[in-house]
Design brief:
With 212 residues, the chain is of the alpha/beta class. Helices cover 41% and strands 8% of the residues. The protein has 9 helices and 6 strands, in the order H-E-E-H-E-H-H-E-H-H-H-E-H-E-H. The chain has helices spanning 5-8, 27-43, 66-72, 79-101, 119-124, 138-141, 146-152, 172-185, 207-210, and strands at 13-15, 20-22, 48-51, 106-109, 157-158, 189-190. The strands form 2 sheets. A 4-stranded parallel β-sheet has the order 3-4-5-6, with helices on one face. It has a two-stranded antiparallel sheet with strand order 1-2. The N and C termini lie far apart (46 Å).
């Protein structure tokens, strides 16, 4: 369509093999996201705003944002920390917008159900990772750092995607209790996101998780 970003602002886009995203490193993109959220708040009587877990794409980022890195990344910051900072700034901007327009509206994010599998990253924050959990390291892959949002107070609640069953490398019971304690530590709310469409799928959750 004529108003598609590919026509109006192609310079805002990052192209990946299976997706096209708005570049989180561009101040213009973060401003646009603020404006969209502000427009929703202005036009609709919403109780809350929630973001899903898509930041930088799954599968990782190599040089898709090379031009933005060259223009905006500080010389003394590594590119991975800088990309996480871009996401954190966006989250903070949205929270500040909500507070300025309708502070009673709650803001939360539904990130991937595993924060990181890197024990050194967790140790720097004084956090113990849940025992025997394996899986993707979204802190590094998509630059998603929910601990930063909780720590900075830029979300009101966290709703991680715990689409797994009790037991195994993504144990629902272990992860839900871990996220609950983490939210409590920072005085925020925790709500478990569950994929009802996967109810009784092989390897997915059952009534046991719903009753947990």
């Amino acid at each position: 369509t004529p108003l598609n970003y590919s026509n109006t602002h192609p310079e805002w886009l990052l192209h990946y093999k299976s997706s096209i995203i708005l570049d989180p490193g561009l101040p213009e993109v973060r401003q646009r996201i603020k404006e969209v959220v502000g427009d929703v708040l202005d036009k609709y009587n919403v109780d809350g705003i929630i973001f899903d877990d898509y930041f930088y794409p799954y599968g990782g980022t190599s040089d898709q944002d090379a031009a933005t890195v060259e223009k905006y990344k500080p010389a003394d910051m590594n590119v991975h920390d800088w990309r996480r900072q871009n996401v954190n700034r966006m989250v903070r901007d949205v929270y500040d917008t909500i507070q300025a327009v309708k502070p009673w509206v709650t803001f939360g994010i539904s990130p991937f159900g595993i924060w990181t599998t890197n024990y050194s990253v967790a140790s720097k924050e004084g956090i113990t990772l849940p025992a025997n959990i394996t899986g993707g390291n979204m802190y590094q892959e998509i630059y998603c750092d929910p601990v930063a949002w909780l720590k900075e107070g830029t979300i009101d609640y966290i709703s991680p995607q715990l689409y797994w069953k009790i037991g195994g490398g993504q144990d629902y019971r272990v992860l839900s209790k871990w996220w609950g304690r983490l939210a409590d530590r920072f005085g925020k709310q925790f709500y478990s996101s569950m994929a009802v469409y996967r109810y009784h799928d092989e390897g997915a959750f059952t009534v046991n998780e719903l009753q947990e």
